[in-house]
Amino acid sequence: MAALTNFARSAPRFAWRQLSTSAARNTKVAVLGAAGGIGQPLSLLLKTSTVGIKHLALYDVAHTPGVAADLSHIDTSCKVTSHLGEAELTSALEGAGIVVVPAGVPRKPGMTRDDLFNTNATIVAKLASAASTVCPSAVLCIITNPVNSMVPLAVDIYEKKAVYKNQVLGVTTLDVVRSNTFIAEATGLSPYELDIPVIGGHSGVTILPLLSTVSHDLPKPKVEALTTRIQNAGTEVVEAKAGAGSATLSMAFAGARFVKQLARVMDSAPTKQTACAYVRQPNTNQFGMPYFAIPISLRAGGFDYLPTDITMNKYEAQLIETEVKPQLIQDIEKGVMFAGQFSG
């Protein structure tokens, strides 16, 4: 368990709170779906970032001018531009170093992530196709659910255009944020002392927090209860909002944390950032899966794989085989099949 324990202890827990003191490379970030429930608070957090984001390009099919005007009044050096409708998608993407995609319809009570698939898959496919053409070197960060299917869909589009170079990622930071929060509540530890790796996927039973890395004895029933709560946390919010939305604020927070880590890497600072994300796996990998959420090393233009295998306890290894992989295989196939039918 040493490898993952070392990751948990050495990860930049406070990186998102640090000020950038190096010369900025002035990254342009395009937010696709900027007027939505996640897009607006996400854009606010990025506008107030201090990590070298020079230009925030806000794109959506409606209401973007108002959101951009509102954010542009905030006294930071980050420029804000509005891009409304498909005719202005290209201008939003031109010169972008990071493209964030929270676009799509949210979950409602009684809906699963599968229910969202057809509508959101069409949206993500069109946006990924545009990004792979206009700014193929930009890092594409997918927030739109179901992430387990959307990332394979997007990667397939990039590969068909022969531009895929480890620059498409599914943002799973919210699973880490929730794990830190719930474990802190259960143990009395500070959430600032925690950075729990979460592997697998980004929905239901595919989410596997590695609670064995916590330096606090947790009885097995508590581990099982916490694992279940982390897996069902999205549903917890949907039900609490009673039809008024899904986990928009916490997702915006987590998404901004991830994007700011990327922006810091794209700054001139030499420090690398380690984070969990749902990514395409090399042909030979620990889990025998084409896609999996794992700790990765972020770099300018994408990510690199960490050199060590993930160490798990018996309970976690069993969940990988009995719950995570069977569901994840279905989710991946759905995205790949949709990409095969998409022409754009």
List the helices and strands and how they pair.
Blueprint: H1 2-10, E1 27-32, H2 39-47, E2 53-60, H3 64-72, E3 79-84, H4 89-93, E4 98-101, H5 117-134, E5 139-142, H6 147-160, E6 168-170, H7 173-187, E7 198-200, E8 207-209, H8 220-231, H9 233-241, H10 248-266, E9 273-280, E10 291-299, E11 302-305, H11 314-341
Parallel strand pairs: 1-2, 1-4, 2-3, 4-5, 5-6
Antiparallel strand pairs: 7-8, 9-10, 10-11
Helix pairs in contact: 2-10, 5-6, 6-11, 7-8
Quick structural summary:
With 344 residues, this protein is of the alpha/beta class. It is built from 11 helices and 11 strands.
Main sheet specs: 6 strands, parallel
Mean pLDDT: 91
Beta-strand residue fraction: 15-25%
Count of separate DSSP helical elements = 11
Low-pLDDT ranges: 1-24
Side-by-side strand order of the widest sheet: 3-2-1-4-5-6
Task: Categorize the overall geometry.
Answer: globular
Please estimate the helix content. 40-55%
Structural class by SSE content: alpha/beta
- What distance separates the N and C termini? 45 Å
Number of strands: 11
> Which sequence of SSEs, written as H and E, runs from N to C?
HEHEHEHEHEHEHEEHHHEEEH
